[in-house]
Specification:
By secondary structure, the chain is an alpha+beta fold. The chain has 4 domains: 60 residues, no CATH class; 122 residues, Alpha-Beta Plaits; 203 residues, Pseudouridine synthase I, catalytic domain, C-terminal subdomain (Alpha-Beta Plaits); 115 residues, no CATH class. The chain has 18 helices and 10 strands. Strands 1, 2, 3, 4, 5, 6, 7, 8, 9 and 10 form a 10-stranded mixed sheet that branches. Helix 10 runs antiparallel to helix 12. It is elongated. The protein starts with 28 loop residues before the first helix and ends in a 49-residue tail after the last helix.
């Protein structure tokens, strides 16, 4: 999503010299003083580098990175030489999907007009796009914007094949499927036409809008000049319910509380949801099981509890991303049997803050008549299991979070405010890495939930200076784990310790960039007589766009695919101690011996942690 404060991804391997390995104590003085050969130097250097970092480049702080700037001119020259060599050898690469190559005659016929450095304020829905950043082969937001600039005449035909010629820089780089109500890119455009914004929007799909274009000074960079960023995360309120008592995580968290002599404290912290699962069992599970023969009731109940939320729910595997348009089942949570359809229609009146006017208790799925179902006992049992799972999902959607639990969420979110080491909230960073330190200015939850299609949603908003890959999604997931597992909110502080903790990332579906902040830059632009990069003047258009293209898409996708249901069901059924840091034992819990019955595989190995699962999606750093 957001670009990191420091990065070595653009530096050549040769620019980072690994430290020479220390001599071994058991070596002779002659061996230690004798000058090594070139081959030995190279071998030792590679061995020491690979042994310590596994072949990865070492981390660099902001100051060190700034003292080792990349020679962009030399890098571009090398790239041009490589392209020229491919052309000479007859292996010239094709144009990127966003580029257009015009003939020399077409370029000559176009009138030459001056380019101006500008800030372009945009909004977009990330559904169906492979993120914000340009890609040579994938459909991206910047790719569609670049083509629209060319079509509208804001970029000349001579520059239509290479965005570098226009000095394009983005403020925030969002992940695939992530939305933005407000984002900014800086580049050089031809803006002599008064209706240039209208022409650009006509060339774009309704999912992408240009709010306005402001003239800036020539040194303006949307990334470097951004003071901070504000993100919003929408999440169903049922995601803060405790794990099912018969799920693996639910059982283990209770055992840990007993062993740590914290059972009374655990029950006090879960008092506002203490009867939820008991009421569900009486109102939904019992009703479905009573349709079976007495001889099958106990068997079905035991099977249901043992399989609850394990690889039978809709959605995606924990820690992985799916395209929002994809209907293919995931590898981790592939349905063994097709679940009953959930509600897919969303009423026209989207927002309803009055709980009494909506239907808070829709009818659960009913058992079909015996004439519709097979008389075979196994088929009947499997049918009832499917119905039970669907009934549980519907019951979760009818949950209405009390104000006391919202207060717990707000208090837990406040633990992020300040300057902390967020190495556990991203990938490939250690506690010693200076770039893992980030400043969070505020993290709040709206006191008034919204109800859409019978499901209650909460709006979380975080304001920070900058964010790392997956940081916001992991922050949301960690808060949900702390509240769900009934531990003290101070557990968030433990995640700043050097210990490496497994924090899964919440679905990208609910995340959107609300706006970047340019307060300091706006003060300078006022002095220069330029306009300010301020989204306040477009708040009416942005509100309508957010409702139509972002909020509605989020709600519809969740109703159709149940991503949040599947995500938290996957957490509850993951048979590993990697999430036990959210229990009463804290960080010590991750070393807990869960035994063969606790979830080791037949070879005695636990499932891999979330950090070892899919981490190859589009980046979301800024």
């Amino acid at each position: 999503m957001d670009q990191p404060v420091s990065s070595v991804s653009h530096m050549a391997e040769s620019e980072i010299a690994p430290s020479a390995p220390k001599p071994l104590d058991n070596c002779s003085s002659e061996a230690r003083t004798a000058p090594p050969t070139d081959t030995a130097k190279e071998s030792d250097s590679r061995a020491g580098f690979a042994g310590r970092r596994g072949g990865k480049k070492r981390d660099m702080g902001r100051k060190e990175w700034s003292r080792n700037p990349v020679d962009k001119r030399a890098r571009n020259t090398q790239t041009q030489r490589s392209v020229k060599r491919l052309r000479i050898d007859g292996e010239e690469r094709g144009l990127p999907v966003y580029a257009t190559k015009y003939t020399e005659d077409e370029i000559a016929k176009q009138e030459r007009r001056p380019k101006r450095k500008v800030a372009v304020m945009i909004g977009y829905s990330g559904t169906g796009y492979k993120g914000m950043q340009l890609s040579n082969e994938e459909k991206t937001i910047e790719g569609d914007l670049f083509r629209a600039f060319v079509e509208a005449g804001a970029i000349s035909k001579a520059n239509a094949d290479d965005p570098k010629k226009s000095s394009l820089v983005r403020c925030a780089r969002t992940d695939k499927g992530v939305h933005a109500a407000g984002n900014v890119i800086s580049l050089k455009l031809i803006i002599e036409d008064d209706d240039v914004v209208s022409k650009i929007n006509e060339a774009l799909s309704p999912q992408i809008r240009v709010w306005g274009i402001e003239r800036t000074n020539s040194s303006f960079s949307a990334y470097q000049m951004c003071d901070s960023r504000v993100y919003e995360y929408l999440i169903p309120s049922y995601c803060f319910l405790p794990p099912h008592p018969k799920s693996f995580l639910g059982e283990q968290i209770l055992k840990i509380a007993e062993e740590e002599d914290d059972l009374e404290g655990y029950r006090q912290r879960q008092e506002d949801v203490a009867n939820f699962w008991k009421e569900i069992a009486e109102q939904h599970v019992k009703q479905a099981v009573e349709t079976l023969d007495n001889s099958l009731q106990d068997e079905v109940l035991n099977l249901f509890h043992s399989q609850y939320a394990a690889r039978h729910t809709l959605g995606q595997s924990v820690g992985t991303d799916r395209s929002l348009n994809s209907q293919a089942p995931s590898d981790e949570l592939t349905p063994k049997t097709k679940s009953l359809p959930l509600q897919t229609e969303i009423p026209e009146k989207r927002y309803n803050h009055d709980h009494s006017t909506s239907n808070p208790h829709p009818e659960p799925p009913t058992i079909e008549s015996s004439s519709q179902a097979s008389n075979d006992a196994n088929t009947r049992s499997e049918f009832v299991l499917r119905t039970l799972r669907a009934a549980i999902n519907v019951a979760k959607r009818t949950y209405r979070i009390p104000s006391s639990r919202i207060a717990k969420i707000r208090s837990t979110l406040s633990r992020y405010v300040g300057s902390h080491r967020f190495h556990n909230y991203t990938v490939d960073k250690t506690a010693r890495d200076p770039s893992a330190v980030r400043i969070i200015k505020s993290f709040t939850v709206d006191s008034d939930p919204i109800i859409i299609g019978g499901t209650e949603w909460l709006s979380l908003k975080v304001h920070g200076q900058s964010f790392m890959m997956h940081q916001i999604r992991k922050m949301v997931s960690a808060v949900a784990l702390v509240v769900r597992c009934g531990c003290h909110e101070g557990r968030i502080q433990d995640t700043y310790l050097p210990d490496k903790l497994s924090i899964p990332k919440a679905p990208s579906l609910g995340l959107l960039l609300e706006r970047p902040v340019f307060d300091k830059q706006n003060e300078k632009m006022t002095e220069y007589g330029r306009g300010s990069v301020d989204f306040e003047k477009y708040k009416v258009e942005m509100a309508e766009f957010k409702q139509r293209e972002i909020y509605d898409r989020i709600f519809q996708v969740e109703e159709r695919e149940g991503m949040f249901l599947a995500y938290f069901a996957g957490l509850d059924s993951t048979r590993s101690s990697s999430l036990f840091w959210a229990g009463s034992a804290g960080v010590r819990g991750i070393k807990r011996d869960i035994g063969n019955n606790g979830g080791d595989d037949p070879q005695g190995k636990e499932r891999p942690s979330y950090e070892e699962e899919d981490e190859h999606g589009a980046q979301e750093d800024n």
